[in-house]
Amino acid sequence: MTIAPGSRLGQYEILSPLGAGGMGEVWKARDPRLGREVAIKVLPEELAADSDRLKRFEREARSASALNHPNIVTIHEIGESEGRTYLVMEWIEGQTLRELLLEGPLTPRRLLPIATQTADGLARAHEGGIVHRDLKPENLMITKDGLVKILDFGLAKLVSPETKPNSLTVAPTVSIATGAGTVLGTVGYMSPEQASGKAIDYRSDQFSFGVILYEMATGRRAFQRNTPVETLSAIIRDDPEPVGSVNPQAPAPLRWIIERCLGKSPEERYVSTRDLARDLASVRDHLSDTAVPAEFLPAPPRRGRRLLWPLLAGILLLAAVAAASFLLGTRAKKNPLPTYRRLTFRRGHIWSARFTPDGQTVVYGAAWDGKPAQLFSTRPGSPESVPLSLPSADVLSVSSGGELALCLGRHSIGPWETTGTLARAPLSGSAPREILEGVAAADWSPEGERLALVHVVGGVFRLEYPAGKTLSESTGWISHPRISPKGNGVAFFDHPVRGDDSGRMWMADSSGRKKALSRSWYSAQGLAWSPGGKEIWFTASDRGVIRALRAVTPQGSERLIAEFVGTLQDISRDGRVLVSRDMVRARILARPPGETRERDLSWLDTSLAADLSADGTTLLFTEGGEASVGASTVYLRKTDGSAAVRLGEGSAMALSPDGRWALSATTDLSELHMLPTGVGEARRIEGPLVESYQWAGFLPDGKQILFAGREKGRAARLFVQDLEAGARGPRPVTPEGAGAGYLGHVISPDGRFVTGPSGGSGFLIYPVKGGTPVPIAGLLEGEVPVQWSADGQFLYVYRPIEIPARIFRLELSTGRRAPWKELLPDDLTGVNVTTVVVLTRDGRSYAYSCGQILSDLYLVEGLK
User: Fold this and answer.
1) Per the domain annotation, does 101 fall within a domain?
2) What does R_g of the chain's alpha carbons equal in angstroms?
3) In a domain, 734, yes or no
4) Taking Cα atoms as reference points, which of 749, 794, 826 lies closest to residue 591?
5) Closest Cα to residue 61, out of 100, 27, 89?
6) Is 374 left (phi over 0), alpha (psi -120 to 50) or beta?
7) Is residue 119 part of a domain?
């Protein structure tokens, strides 16, 4: 049968030729039944005569026709007429990408929409199990409206060895016999595995797409040599000239995407083409209108600047050396200094970060610029982080197969403790599947099938491995579980006190047997197994939050690796280390009397409000961070912003009614002291029966104090004690186990009652002279009393930890509640918790502390 314009092929009227190639001739035709124009691909006679290949073609065509995506050409029908097999497709009016590229490189504004649509179509096909195998500019059509259509999906593997390219196809589809197999594809756009005759999958299309992106960004072919064989060799062995060198105005995130697509090994490319599409969409949305600003391009030399550049270079070099020394210690005397690379450049808190299976991509959860936590991905060498299309979440672990363990809705339940809902999601970015509530941390087993997790049940932290099997419980809290490379044990931190990150490392095996691997640390955060599994690396400090990187063997042998500020996040298989450098602060915000706006009364790095004077003019607070060098310090400061006055060491508790004294406990809480706020000598409050103080406050007459403490060998409770010289020791106010704790103690204006923990859940009102406690009407679960109103009729209450802190007024006689104030810092960046609120009885002045962590993520290489 001879095909010519005006002839018919089946029911279709042939109009004009469109081209010819490895898969046969392409004609424009008309469907008289529907009155529409179509494109018809007529297959070569040798293909139609080969029954096996024909069946294969029909199978591939049916699969491709089921894709139903706007960026993939629609296949209408497979037909046969007079021995000729043909494929009927939608007619697309436009031009190929090859024709666009004849004009040179595309601007980001033109390139990114085309690239994003192409990647979206590829992702849909790959999700349907179909690989293109012959992606090239000739197979991408762009309509007049800018819509991209991918042609010839799933058909390239049927190309006949005898076919030759037509004059329109610059890079021909070829089939080359090799010792390893048959090479199918287009020279110059093949992947290394295609060029080697190896088995291919969807990542081969990613490489071909990367070659196309390179050509779109630079106007040059990534791999082009004198002969096809030389071109194939270059694809296997050589890297193209960097995009930035050819076109400096190409956006950096785009360059990163191209480099990842052009990874020689499939494992270096994207785990999912859907992730590739998302990355491009993000660049399009943020950078499609931009090029490299002129101030970042090399400037021509000017008179008068010849001495400036060497000076600036010297300053930058010194700064880099200083930063390296600061971050990584000074081990360069014996060994080369490790190198580090900053990966994040925004302001906020990084919750956690993990390497993905390719070892190059980093997925992390961060709350940037005061917004909720979100997942991002980044790669070394790129200043940009790409948000993942998942709900607000934090990454807990990434399995060997690329599955994410996520924490959805992570929220604070203590100064350091957080929980959320455990969920699983593929790296491809499909919707997460919720698994379990109340999960604080999790880690995948080596085979990627089971999870070790920290599960909070009834306020108790449990280590479970696998989920549901308890290996350990804590009286405080548990963090950073990491499964050994052999899967036979879990290393973790046990912090014995809630609200405190001091603790030690333990190892638990599958039967629940535990052993301590380290001594107790002042601060312990961050844990990961070394690549060979011979050591567990962790970050901890003896005092303060300047944590050093250390290693311990499963037998308990410990060594120091490096000194730097940071938290260990993860270790890659080749030994590269992820650390987050955290700047931890606690701020005090206050509203002084007569003012309508809050004032920042923070002093050093960790300012914790303790009490306000009755008139709101004086603030008592504790500094307990790095500036205190491991020993907390008591300060007094006027709320007008005057300089703070150091009163002495310890943890601040309360101001006396006349403002002359400040109650404080020693750092280890073993002694209670009265510090003078003016002239005078400090005095110790004698209480030989008490070995630990948790809280203390003055009764209204200033002659007695109430405190929560623990006698040796007994449970903690409330006591009252006279302050007069020679007075007898403390008298119990509550039974053992009742009324004690660190929060929720408020003394009534007449001194007859005090609120305190019930010993179970919630709070009670205890008579100071003894008697039966009564519940607080209207108090909700998790709420804590803050202050008693001046008339004694109301309690101010709030729920600690929450941001914002919502304070309510409870009418004690009826339980009716009314919102009083919402405390929310102006700058929410890095703020994750409200720790304490203090206010005057008239409600005219208040102060509160909020925790803030600002983080930068670093990749460190060369640590041993």
Assistant:
1) yes
2) 35
3) no
4) 826
5) 89
6) beta
7) yes
